[in-house]
Design goal:
five-stranded parallel sheet; 3 domains; binds iron/sulfur cluster; 450 residues; FAD/NAD(P)-binding domain; Fumarate Reductase Iron-sulfur Protein, Chain B, domain 2
Length: 450
């Protein structure tokens, strides 16, 4: 049974989705920053994909230089506030903190990071001076963490940057697909707004780029193009009953919940299919929305789940029940879902096999599919000489993030297949430096020819 009752008001919704990492007050930040040992080899910093100078920004907080701390963070990671909130810090910076070796609580790096970055966002404090305009234009497809990071870095270097975003809001999955108890929409959007005001890059919303003619126009108008499209809608399971009412994709479910909040309909019994972090989020959210029974069904064993254990524990703590080695065979119903038929599975000689005659039915009013996302192939297939790997991810150079079509660079989920916000932020920043190098080399070539 779920631990939560159905939230009827926005206040009840906020209580059920209480922030996992609440903002520290000044005293908490001072005390917590005093605990840092400023380790010479800073394993926390090595564990951060963007290598933020963590001991430095903690020291700056402790010496009341909070603006300096925010600048230290943004110098390495343009999504500094979002990452403090949504990063799996338990397995990254905080997981690497030396205090873990002494069985002492690690430094709360994520919350300190939010303390510093939110202080400059709320005060709208200018941290950077752009270089004068250099007269070169770059297009970015997608305003997710990779696209926004690429835009900040290029704007700082003096480029005229235009982002084309299919949705009506920026920040990709941070707004559309992250559990609301990790970060609220308002907070995610405030950071993008802060960065956009500081750097002045343009975002063209509700503008999908996918046709041949749109691509040709971008190529004619811009010196380089960065692809930061992320991943698309939930993939099909290709089983009977998938098109019934109340069978939804996890990312679409989370997106609807984040905007409708307590006004969203929540059926009584929900089955979530999948074993990754998105499945854990969707299950946990269903329980927090007051679904009485939430079943998390995964076709393999608990040990094989892709989700972090702490995400699984969070879902179980919210009252979610788990079903392992249960593979969905068909979704049952006439117009609307009334249940899922599963078959038991087992490993035989390293192969997952169905157990004959072990079918069983779990009755439910809603099925949430958290079984992966489709790639945004329309766009990618229309770009000439753009190589994709066997999993349909864009192939890039590991340092410059340049694709096999030299005019295009790429980063984020379309390259890494779906990782953390912090990975997208890092790749977008690196790609911007790759673009800068590429466009400078073109100028040198032109000068040499003349
Ligand atoms: Fe501070 Fe922990 Fe990093 Fe050491 S590992 S510098 S104690 S946060």
């Amino acid at each position: 049974m779920s631990e939560y009752s159905r939230p009827k008001t926005e206040a009840e919704y906020e209580a059920n989705f209480k922030q996992k990492k609440p903002l520290m007050n000044d005293s908490e930040a001072y005390v917590e920053s005093s605990r840092c040992l400023f380790c010479y080899d800073a394993p926390c910093m090595q564990a951060c994909p963007t290598h933020i100078d963590i001991p430095l920004f903690i020291k700056q907080i402790h010496t009341y230089n909070v603006t300096g701390a925010a600048k230290t963070i943004y110098d390495s990671n343009w999504m500094g506030n979002a990452c403090g909130k949504v990063c799996p810090t338990q397995v990254l910076c905080e997981g690497a903190c030396v205090y873990n070796h002494e069985h002492v609580k690690p430094i709360e790096i994520g919350r300190l990071q939010n303390y510093a970055t939110l202080s400059v966002i709320r005060a709208d404090k200018k941290l950077y001076d752009k270089r004068p305009a250099i007269g070169k234009k770059v297009a970015i497809i997608g305003a997710g963490p990779a696209g926004i990071s690429c835009a900040c870095e290029l704007s700082l270097l003096g480029y005229d940057v235009h982002i084309y975003e299919a949705k009506d809001k920026p920040s990709g999955l941070t707004v559309h697909g992250t559990a609301p108890y990790k970060i609220q929409n308002e907070e995610a959007l405030a950071e993008i707004d802060y960065l956009q005001k500081q750097f002045g890059f343009n975002i063209h919303y509700n503008t999908t780029i996918e046709t041949q003619s749109q691509i040709e126009k971008l190529e004619a108008d811009y010196g380089a193009v960065f692809i930061g499209v992320g991943i698309g809608p939930t993939s099909k399971l290709n089983i009977e009953g998938e098109d019934l009412k109340n069978v939804v994709g996890a990312v679409e479910f989370v997106n609807e919940l984040r905007f409708k909040k307590n006004k969203m309909d929540m059926p009584k019994t929900v089955v979530v299919l999948g074993g990754g972090n998105t499945a854990m989020d969707a299950a946990s959210e269903s329980a927090r929305m007051g679904a009485e029974n939430v079943y998390l069904a995964y076709r393999r064993s608990k040990e094989d789940m892709g989700a972090y254990y702490f995400e699984y524990d969070l879902a179980i703590g919210a009252g979610v029940q788990s079903l392992f080695n249960a593979s969905p065979k068909k979704i049952i119903g006439v117009d609307k879902v009334i249940g899922v038929q599963f078959v038991r599975t087992e490993m035989k000689k390293d192969k997952l096999e169905e157990v004959q005659g072990s079918e069983f039915i779990v009755e439910c009013d809603m099925v949430i599919k958290a079984t992966g996302q489709a790639k945004v192939l329309n766009l990618l297939q229309n770009i000439q000489n753009l190589k994709l790997d066997a999993s349909k991810r864009i192939v890039v150079d590991a340092t410059t993030y340049q694709t096999t079509n030299p005019k295009y660079f790429a980063g984020g989920d379309a390259v890494n297949g779906g990782a953390e916000v912090v990975n997208g932020a890092y790749e977008g920043k690196r790609a911007a430096l790759g673009i800068h190098q590429y466009l400078n080399a073109l100028v040198k070539q032109a000068v040499a020819v003349n």
